[in-house]
Design brief:
Length: 251
């Protein structure tokens, strides 16, 4: 690889090891309660993308919990937001942003674009956990993966469902330190958007030797791999998405 600048990804913030600002962005997908409880322990700021507010409201059946875990904002075109939910959060003085003028992006993209444009969310210490980014319709999942790869390099975003977590690894050389609490050593994978030359260190089945020196969606991708270390080094000539299985589901 020509560019030897080392990019570092440190996921130990999920273990409470760093003083990071955590934003939990909830999409309009079913919320897995054990996963939600794990992330709430990180004291995140909660933001809902349109119908994600319905999901949060329905998850928290107890009125005390609904008061305790209020979102700071509900953002989107609001066509999925139920009236009772909107009225409840309006009464609680939750910010409700109608971005229906933008019909070229999904509710999630509207919400996320709005957040990363704000100074309060643009610093390097902010981590975005996007709950509900995977699952459901495959075209929605693929759109979200495409969006993840399009984000600016300084945005630290983690896309999740109840089974897995994905984050972007930029082209060049990257050292990844994993969360011992959240990320399972088995069941990891690498998703390329384009044909990518790649090599790895720290996996049971490392990439880098032919035919596994190149990965692409129309040839081969690495799935069901396994980490042999809590740190993995990846060198690639295009951005890829790393996928981790979630640890607490395998306990």
């Amino acid at each position: 690889m020509v560019d030897q600048k080392v990019f570092k990804i440190d996921n130990t913030f999920l273990d409470g090891a760093q003083n990071s600002k955590v934003v939990l962005l909830i999409l309009n997908r079913p919320i897995h309660r054990p996963l939600f409880d794990q992330f709430i322990a990180l004291s995140p700021e909660i933001i809902c993308a349109d119908g994600g507010a319905n999901r949060l409201y329905d998850l928290l059946e107890d009125s005390e919990d609904r008061q305790k875990f209020l979102p700071s904002a509900v953002i989107g075109d609001l066509d999925s937001l139920r009236k009772e939910v909107r009225d409840h959060y309006h009464k609680q003085k939750v910010e409700i942003q109608d971005l229906s003028h933008d019909q070229d992006t999904t509710d999630f993209e509207k919400c996320f674009n709005h957040l990363i444009s704000k100074e309060a969310f643009s610093d390097d210490m902010t981590r975005f956990l996007v709950l509900g980014a995977f699952g459901g319709r495959l075209d929605h999942t693929m759109r979200n993966i495409s969006y993840l790869l399009s984000l600016p390099e300084n945005i630290k975003a983690y896309f999740l469902d109840e089974y897995s977590m994905g984050f972007r690894v930029p082209k060049g050389k990257t050292e990844i330190k994993f969360s011992k609490k959240f990320e399972f050593t088995k069941g990891c994978g690498i998703i390329p958007a384009q044909t990518t030359r790649i090599s790895t260190n720290g996996l049971k089945w490392n990439l880098g030797q032919a035919p596994w020196d190149v990965t692409s969606l129309d040839t081969q991708i690495s799935t069901s791999n396994e980490r042999v270390s809590n740190e993995v080094t990846i060198e690639c000539d295009r951005d890829i998405v790393w996928m981790s299985s979630l640890n607490f589901l395998n306990e």
